[in-house]
Structures are given as C-alpha cells and as structure tokens.
Amino acid sequence: MDKTIKLRVKKEIDNSSELKVLKLKGTLISKGYTEIIHIADENTEYYLNSFSTSPENKKEVEHFVLDYITNHDLADTISLLEENK
Predict the structure, then answer these.
(1) Prediction pTM value
(2) In whole angstroms, what is the distance from residue 54 CA to residue 44 CA?
(3) What are 43-77's pLDDT values in tens digits?
C-alpha cells in the first residue's frame, strides 16, 4: 500500500522561494517518487501538498525533502508533516 507524504507550504512567499518549491515538486516527480502532487488549501496561511509514494521509497523521499528544505533555506516556507500514527 502506498504511503502518503504531506507538505505544508506557506501561501505568501517571494518569487525566489516559489521557484525553489516548484523545483522541489518537479524533482519529486522526475525522480519517480510520485506521479502527481495534490494541492489543497489548509487555511488562510498554508497550502497542503500531498502525494503517494511506495513504502520502500518513503524514508528516502522524507530525507530528500528535509535535505532540500535545509539546502535551499526553505524552513520558513515549507515543512514536512509527520504521519499520524
């Protein structure tokens, strides 16, 4: 069964950060981690981006996303949400 990964993305961001977020999403798709990323309004400040990946890729994807956030200075813009147990 595929695992869902959720990202919280700030709505009001500058163009540079927006480009970095788009590149992250594109890279997730181009690396074959997912085929589609769903975007929904979480509230007035954030979008909720979610996508499914295979169970064997889940940890790799989480590490990739966290590294990307750190390396591109996006900690105030995007966060990886913990899965509810």
Answers:
(1) 0.88
(2) 31
(3) 999 999 999 999 999 999 999 999 999 999 999 99
Contacts of 17 (CB under 8 A, 6+ apart): 74, 77
Q: Kindly report the length of the chain.
A: 85
Q: Which of 19, 81, 84, 85 is nearest to 51 (CA)?
A: 81
Of 3.30.70.2200, 2.60.120.290, 2.70.50.60, 3.30.110.30, which CATH number belongs to 3-81?
A: 3.30.70.2200
Cα distance between residue 71 and residue 82, in whole Å: 20
